[in-house]
Amino acid sequence: MRDMEQQNAEKIKLLLDIYSQDSKQVMVFVSICFALPAFTLSQVKLEGLPTSSRAVLLISFFLFIVAGLIFFCYTQYQNRKRLEGIQSILALNPDGLREILMGPRQGLWAIAWPLYRSATLILILAASAYAMFFILYFFPGIVS
After folding, report:
1. Which one of 8, 65, 76, 144 is least enclosed by Cβ atoms within 10 Å?
2. What is the C-alpha to C-alpha distance for residues 85 and 67, in angstroms, rounded to an integer?
3. Cβ neighbours for 41, distance < 8 A, ≥ 6 positions apart
4. Distance between CA atoms of 71 and 68, rounded to whole angstroms?
5. Directed axis angle between helix 51-84 and helix 108-138, to 10°?
6. pTM of the predicted model as reported, rounded to 2 decimal places
7. Beta-carbon neighbour count of residue 56 at 10 Å?
8. Do 94 and 128 contact (CB within 8 A), yes or no?
9. In this structure, are residues 19 and 78 in contact, taking their beta carbons and an 8 Å threshold?
């Protein structure tokens, strides 16, 4: 009986570690989405920039902020699922915890996958617009 409890505790620890890694990765995305525009605004002087460069920069900022907000909503689902799993953790029920956190019907990705996917796509668009800004910034002769 004691060995089974120990095995269940180890399975629960593994599930929570995996879940924690997902949470950390998403928080890195959230941080990038909000820190990059703030850092850029503090370092780049907007006055004197061509209108096209400013427009591309503002579009990238808008997309970064939207992606960050959507990723933040995803983290709220993560937190809710972790709290739903407390009963399974206390009961040393790794199968119930796995179903709550990662199950195909009620797990995080089953519920919040559209948020994660759309935030990732918006982040890619934001990074592309941001890269375009720097091309325009360092090579202003490209657009006349």
Report:
1. 144
2. 27
3. 61
4. 5
5. 160
6. 0.86
7. 23
8. no
9. yes
Amino acid at 130: Y
Helix (H) or strand (E) holding 35: helix 2-43
Residue with tokens 């180890």, as numbered in its chain: 10
* Alpha-carbon gap, residue 79 to 4, rounded angstroms: 28
Report residue 61 as tokens.
């900022």
Own/partner contacts of 127-134, CB < 8 Å, gap of 24 or more, are: 127/60, 129/56, 129/57, 129/59, 129/60, 129/63, 130/36, 130/40, 130/57, 130/60, 130/64, 132/56, 132/60, 133/53, 133/56, 133/57, 133/60
